[in-house]
Structure prediction request, 346 residues.
Amino acid sequence: MSDDRWTEGAEVSSESVDPVAGAPGDDAETLRERQRLAQVDMMDRWVGGVLTEQRRTRRWKLFFRLMMFAVVLVVLFATLYGLFWNSPSSTAPTQRHLGIVAVNGVIASDSPANAERIIQGLNRAWEAESAAAVVLHINSPGGSPVQSQRIYAEIMRLREQGDKPIIAVIEDIGASGAYYIAAAADDIVASPVSLVGSIGVIYAGFGFEEAISRLGVERRVLTAGENKAFLDPFQPLDDDAETFWQGVLSQTHRQFIDDVRAGRGDRLSDSPDIFSGLIWSGEQSLELGLVDQLGSLEQVAREQVGDTEWIDYTPSLDPFERLTRRFAQVTAEVLGVHAPNTPLRF
Prediction:
């Protein structure tokens, strides 16, 4: 054993031996062996790290694939639900019920409360033989004059046929363009604390002409027609332009008033404040003749069909379209480029 070159010399702890440089007294063969072992160990560690990273990458890929699959399933399910389960049945119901048409949110061509959708729901409910009454279930602050007038005209057309009553039930708010729609109904029902009225027209904008001059920015606007840019917020609104625009607002307001009078008739009181743009509670509205009775959807159902039975005839929204529309609206608002389709609002 004394001739064993591996055991000769002083004992050296493993912690003090450099795996590459070796220990003092190592010959060339021992040094090469240590270097080989160190390289093998380094290679093992590298391979282990690569395998660990690959496993981690595969797990993330699997996670995102599962997430994408889940999103596709949700969208598919929501679409099928909207098409087959959450829409009026193709088989006409035989039990007497209220035919509900919802008017929720701002009335605008690019919102769920648009004229085309609501008119389609009105006609569905009107044509349902077992629907004892058509009910406009309103919870809206108003919106586009054009969209409101289209719905108003369709309600008046159906009302003149006289086959079944059309009732407007106002929830939290039925103001401005929403009241415009309600005024076409045979009767209007509201809660004592509903907000009703706001019969007026509004245009709102800003004037930045002084701000832009202070910033040293030159505004360049080219038009064909001297008044084409009269509402440009970076130019002052002169007296003639203001007078003209006020005339447009007044004429639109007059149309609003005439249609409300045509719908409500002599039920309206003679108070000059009715058409001033003020908004009242349901209880105050009853005194002014803006509504016919205080109550709720359940009370209307019991009066018309003897039970709280109703079917929603409002056309279902495409879930994907709703998602993309909402995303576009939020993005436009964040970027500050959101603008209504018309500067006038009921």
Notes: The longest helix spans residues 28-85. The chain has a mean pLDDT of 83.
